[in-house]
Design goal:
The complex is a heterodimer of chains A (401) and B (381). By secondary structure, chain A is α/β, with parallel strands linked by helices. Chain A has eleven helices and twelve strands. In chain A, the strands form two sheets. In chain A, strands 6-7-8-3-9-10-12-11 form an eight-stranded mixed beta sheet, with helices on both faces. Chain A has a four-stranded antiparallel beta sheet with strand order 2-1-4-5. In chain A, helix 4 (162-172) crosses helix 5 and helix 4 (162-172) packs parallel to helix 6 (208-220). Helices cover 34% and strands 21% of the residues of chain B. Classes of the chains: A alpha/beta (401), B alpha/beta (381). At the A-B interface, helix 7, helix 8 and helix 10 of A face helix 9, helix 10, helix 11, helix 12 and helix 13 of B.
Chain lengths: 401, 381
């Protein structure tokens, strides 16, 4: 007995309801679910993969939201990495220098996809966009790209013995068979200046220097192709620093490793790197070969940074450019050139127009209005006029802190 | 059984025995220290040279740990002249921080004890041996005569008090007699200005987390200078800072030293910083001084193989080398120090005499002293 309602069959009732709901949908359209608005446009031209480069970074940006107010609304963004481009040749070392808070560490982590999604830009590792990989593919990729963390005190689990800290990932990724496992770990530890009896100890039993060796051993145990060294020797003593630097170089020659060497110790960077990038407030301000950068620094920031290096010679004449103040907040960076508040050679144009990334010499890039060609000068002048029309006030002279 | 063969293995019985022994020794020291109304004669002493503000004389500071006795400082003697900067260089664990903590008497007690030796502190008209002085006297010495700038500005400040309160406290405790609250606040703000903080009124009411590392280090320096101390111990004051900020801080320290005419004992492992700051340099290795002299002696004529190795292992901007020199081996285990030269096992310049006992300090010139067998028979050259 089919269900009857006012003489209608099931199908008719169904049809009626369907029409009614359609009508309802037309009368009260649901707000369309839009994709969340992109924070910034991807304004880069897509990269073409060049096999000589293991890593290509193009206009990479990473912004962190600042939450505020009662409902954790996003009130602003910390522009930790703000449009960085460079290419890293296979088997070479790139040094990355800059003051703390300039985004060097964030850049290293964003390249390894360790801090969430990027905001814009491209990271090509062996021609593969890192951010397009599925979690499973990413996991496999992780053995190829490793990181040595900055702080040896917080990057080691206090509950695992050292042998397990180093060996955990080796076992997980199946780098060696279980029969060779112990010998392999011993070998890795020996390479990094640790002794076999350290294996059963826990991180708290080690000094800072030795902990950093454990971190290095952990990263190198996976036979990576590319290692981000995030201040690996800052916590070590001078003589051990030398051992570690030599070790890193030996391993580089042996396994054709590529390093991104982040450090604020410029003498170490000069020693180990083939090319150097100088970062300031989320931007690369200068990039070039080590010889070029150290013999002919172009950007005023690079000059100031290099003049501050202490020289182990009591008679050395200090021709020091002491920068005033400290690095401005990356949440609210100065307009125009970000360095103009502390720059000795600041010009009118620097306060309004951001400088372009120009190749001043072969392979030596710099972002500074001092090295603009005529066309770039014109563009900058136009940008300055536009900014002035809009009434953008130049930054107030920051109080000398 | 396998475990027993490992280095550093202790049986439970052995550990208990050591621990009992340690308690007996440290209790003795603590008893000595806890006496009330110690007469001044006991710690009153005389400076060997009135131009020195501190004299370390054969200082031995040991730590009685459950694994054995660690001779952290083992016979260290050097002087800090008035108005000069003495740099103490060495790797971590060589005893440079323990030397300075012995002067402050801030050792981790009861395990850490000054076992023998003197630290003579010049107070102008008299001199005290701080290793024997009771706590009440030390309380008056710290801050007023000796003060310390600690290594990590992040942890040296209390996160729950405002900057102003923390500096006020120092002044109140050590120099606060007859001063009103306004006076003290005025002094604090003056200090903040002195270390180059422009917005000193604002910083006065800020919390440490609101400041950057360089600013915090300035606050710590201001705190150390609050009572115009005669001796400032700077324990790696710039290690945690950027080069640009480091340059600023070193600049401030140099200016302030001249302004209040005090001596600085500058502890660091950065030879570049030492070269820039120090008049005299002391090189320490495994709890002993291996070489000391003027900055010129040490940097232009380094004598001890360790000093030479240390200098060669640091890359220098502008000098291209293929491979850094690295000192082979490791620092010996501080619990079982060898009975020959501590550096012998890592030394590449050994001579025949090195088999013998630990070498004595010998003078190469009036100021330059080294403890190495290579220079025996070459004194005074």
């Amino acid at each position: 007995m089919p269900y009857m309602k006012a003489g209608k069959t099931d199908d008719e009732v169904f049809e009626e309801n369907k029409q009614a709901s359609q009508q309802h949908a037309e009368d009260f359209p649901k707000p369309k679910k839009t994709k969340r608005e992109k924070l910034v446009e991807d304004d880069h031209a897509p990269l073409i993969y060049d096999p000589q480069y293991i890593l290509m970074v193009n206009r990479l940006k990473k912004y962190f939201p600042i939450k505020g107010g009662m409902i954790s609304k996003t009130v602003g963004h910390v522009k930790a990495v703000d449009g960085v481009s460079f290419n890293l040749k296979r088997g070479t070392t790139m040094g990355l220098v800059g003051e703390s808070g300039c985004g060097k560490t964030t850049l290293g982590r964003v390249i390894l996809r360790l801090s969430g999604e990027k905001t814009a830009g491209q990271v090509l590792f062996n021609g593969q966009e890192v951010y397009d990989l599925s979690p499973k593919e990413m996991r496999a990729m992780r053995t190829k790209m490793q990181i040595i963390f900055q702080d040896p005190f917080s990057s080691l689990s206090p509950r695992l013995p050292v042998g397990e800290i180093i060996g955990e990932a080796v076992r997980e990724h199946g780098i060696v068979s279980s029969a060779e496992f112990d010998d392999y770990i011993d070998g890795v530890m020996d390479n990094c200046g640790l002794q076999p009896f350290h294996k059963d100890r826990y991180p708290h039993e080690f000094s800072g220097g030795q902990r950093q060796r454990i971190c290095i051993a952990r990263a190198l145990a996976l036979n990576p192709e590319f290692v981000v060294c995030d201040e690996p020797v800052s916590a070590l003593d001078v003589s051990i620093q030398a051992q570690i630097i030599n070790l890193l170089r030996e391993l580089q020659e042996k396994y054709k490793l590529t390093y991104l060497f982040i450090s604020h110790d410029l003498s170490v960077v000069e020693h180990i790197s083939d090319s150097v990038g100088v970062m300031y407030l989320g931007n690369l301000v200068e990039y070039g070969s080590t010889e070029n950068i150290f013999s002919r620094p172009l950007h005023p920031y690079t000059e100031a940074l290099f003049s501050a290096i202490p020289v182990p010679d009591p008679d050395a004449k200090m021709n020091r450019i002491i920068l005033k103040g400290s690095i401005p907040s990356p949440a609210n960076p100065p307009k125009g050139c970000k360095f103009h508040t502390r720059c000795e050679k600041c010009m009118e144009i620097c306060k309004y127009a951001a400088p372009e990334w120009t190749e001043v010499e072969q392979g030596h890039f710099c972002a500074c209005h001092l090295y603009n060609d005529a066309a770039a000068d014109q563009r900058a002048a136009q940008a300055m006029e536009a900014a002035k029309r809009e009434g953008v006030a130049p930054e107030k002279e920051e109080e000398a802190l | 059984m396998a475990k027993k063969k490992q280095e550093g293995y202790l049986s439970a019985r052995e550990a208990r025995r050591i621990s009992r022994e340690n308690r007996r020794i440290t209790n003795g020291f603590e008893k000595q220290r806890k006496r009330k109304n110690v007469p001044e004669e006991e710690y009153l002493t005389r400076m060997h040279d009135a131009n020195n503000s501190v004299e370390f004389d054969d200082l031995h500071t040991y730590f009685f740990t459950d694994a054995g006795t660690v001779k952290a400082v083992d016979g260290v003697s050097f002087d800090v002249p008035i108005g000069k900067t003495v740099g103490v260089v060495g790797e971590s664990g060589c005893g440079k921080s323990v030397t300075s903590l012995s002067l402050m008497q801030l050792l981790q007690r009861p395990q850490g004890q000054v076992v023998s030796g003197q630290i003579r502190l010049n107070l102008g008209d008299k001199a005290y041996d701080v290793t024997k002085a009771p706590n009440e006297v030390l309380q008056k010495l710290r801050g007023n005569y000796v003060s310390m700038i600690f290594q990590e500005p992040m942890t040296a400040l209390n996160p729950v008090f405002r900057i102003g309160e923390q500096i006020n406290e120092v002044i109140e405790l050590h120099d606060g007699e007859g001063k009103s609250a306004e006076d003290i606040k005025g002094r604090t703000i003056e200090l903040l200005k002195m270390v180059g903080i422009a917005n000193s009124e604002g910083v006065y009411s800020m919390f440490p987390h609101e400041l950057s590392g360089g600013m915090r280090q300035r606050v710590v320096i201001a705190m150390a200078l609050a009572c115009n101390p005669k001796v400032i111990i700077a324990d790696e004051p710039t290690t945690a800072l950027d080069v640009t900020i480091q340059a600023q801080i070193l600049d401030i320290l140099r200016q302030l030293k001249d302004r209040i005419n005090s001596s600085i004992m500058f502890i660091t492992h950065d030879l570049g910083v030492i070269a820039e700051m120090a008049d005299y340099v002391v090189v320490m290795y495994a709890g002993r001084i291996v070489e000391k002299g003027t900055a010129d002696d040490i940097f232009h004529h380094p004598a001890h193989p360790y000093t030479i190795g240390l200098m060669a292992s640091k890359p220098v901007v502008g000098k291209k080398i293929d491979k850094l020199y690295s000192i082979p081996g490791k620092v010996p285990n501080p619990i079982n120090m060898p009975n020959y030269c501590y550096f012998k096992d890592r030394c590449e310049m050994c001579v025949e005499g090195c088999e013998g006992a630990y070498p004595e300090m010998i003078s190469l010139s009036d100021t330059h002293k080294v403890s190495c067998y290579r220079y025996y028979g070459k004194e005074g050259e």
